[in-house]
Amino acid sequence: MAPLATTKVTQISRQVYKDFPELKGSKPSIKSQGAPKTGKSMGIERFLLTFKSNITLPSGNSMQRVVRVIADQNGKVIKKTTSK
Question: What are the backbone dihedrals phi and psi of residue 27, each rounded to the nearest 5 degrees, phi first?
Fold first, then answer.
């Protein structure tokens, strides 16, 4: 399993920062998920990128925002989920 290329991480990060500007500047942790054994994306490795940042709420309290992104080795975002 090859690591995700730096250029692809940058490409994915730009997409996340566009949707979640409060995460701008946070570096993701990256974990390989392997490649699906069936389906049309068979043989294309997937990665889980986790972005974390503390944000300030209007009430003055802070909350940790976590965005998880599943992307393939080509930099295509497959799925994005976020904490509330």
Answer: -95, 135
